Amino acid sequence: MFVNLRDRLDLLAGHSIGVALSGGGDSVALLHLLRQGGCNVCAATVDHGLRPDSGAEATRVAGWCRDWGVPHQVLVWRHGGDVPKGNLMDAARRARRDLLVRWAVAQGVDTVALGHTADDQAETLLMGLSRAAGIDGLCGLRPDWQVGPVRFIRPMLRLTRAELRDWLRGQGLPWVEDPTNSNPRFLRARLRRALADLGPLGLTPARLAESAAHLAQARRALDAATAEAAPQVLHEAAGALQVDAARLAALPPELARRLVQAAVLWISGADYPPRAADLARFCAAMMQGRAATLAGCRFKAGWIAAELRSATMARWTLAAGGAVRPLGPEGLRQCPDWRATGLPRHVLEVTPGLWNGDRLAAAPLAGHGQGPATCAPSFRDTLLSH
Predict the structure, then answer these.
(1) In a domain, 216, yes or no
(2) Which domain holds residue 369?
(3) Fewer beta carbons under 10 A from the terminal one: N or C of the chain?
(4) Measured between alpha carbons, how far is residue 288 from residues 172, 240, 284, 295, 300 in Å?
(5) Residuewise pLDDT in 10s, the chain (386 residues)
(6) Domains: count for the chain
(7) Residues whose CB falls within 8 Å of the CB of residue 170, separated by 6 or more in sequence, listed in order
(8) Are residues 369 and 241 in the same domain?
(9) Is residue 245 part of a domain?
């Protein structure tokens, strides 16, 4: 059985890997399965400081790693007690990601492994069902993704929590249980209890995880179809997208929705898509040629561009020599030949200008001054990377 668990890890031996080690059974099993599978490992424990015992637990895990001969570091989320309002769990996830990326870079490690299992996949699928999610919300957890120079992987998505606990007991290895995992205040904890009742009906974590994997394959097919349709419907210029409304309306509704959602995410730089109802209204307006705004994006006269109040220069590379900020109406007034570009006013107003005080030194996309202005990644590259 132990050999079978190692064989089912989606990983090649001999790689240097960082492990996000909470001290829970899943991450402890991951650490030792990787070690026994021939990987060179180091570990980091993130202390979010959200529970009174979190610091002591991180210290305990550090002691285990010392005993095991595993390089280890405790990463502390420095929020000073000022815990972000709103979605606390999302804020904690973002903090953990950022801390792990910086740690991995400092260690010279390009891959960080997370201990999510088939049970986590099953719970994520059920959470999506509880929200009436579409296919994107039912695909479960991604097996891997990139954050800057660091690749995150989840090599245990085909293993169940019960299998790993049995393996740990057989190896005589310790672990700690996070009390939030059984706190009914959290939906995921309630779903864990529900899964125990669903098992006799055949809805086991392994079966549900398999369904999530099938849905992920369907999503990849939809993503490919969306990327294929994009050049026929959207034309990128000056960090904006010109829309062929008739061709957009002729697409199957799901492809049209995915294409507009991708456009909004690319222009806005948001991490999450807008609400389904808001996106549907925005799609309808585009197909009918009506002006509309959504998530910092503006559709007008056949073009989607950033709203001026939301425009960011983070996507742009411009020749140095002054402050880079959006042109806005004032900058455009200093570009007498902007109409010759063929681009509408609301698109050019959110392109970059090189400013010296109130004087516009250059605005290449508006036909003023020299030097290139490049928006990266392109919309096409963004589509193909998902």
Answers:
(1) no
(2) 309-378
(3) N
(4) 65, 19, 6, 19, 11
(5) 445 676 667 666 678 899 999 999 999 999 999 998 889 999 999 987 667 777 888 899 999 999 999 999 999 987 655 655 556 677 788 889 999 999 999 999 999 999 999 999 999 999 899 888 889 989 999 999 999 999 999 999 999 999 999 999 999 999 988 766 666 777 777 888 888 888 888 889 999 999 999 999 999 999 999 999 999 999 999 999 999 999 999 999 999 999 999 999 999 998 889 999 999 999 999 999 999 999 999 999 999 999 999 898 888 887 666 688 999 999 999 999 999 999 999 999 999 998 988 899 889 899 988 777 888 889 998 887 76
(6) 3
(7) 1, 2
(8) no
(9) yes
How many residues are recorded in the chain?
386
Contact assessment for residue 386 and residue 223, using Cβ atoms and an 8 Å cutoff: yes
Contact indicator for 167, 48 with CB cutoff of 8 Å: no
Q: Domain check: are 303 and 314 in the same one? A: no
pTM of the model: 0.82
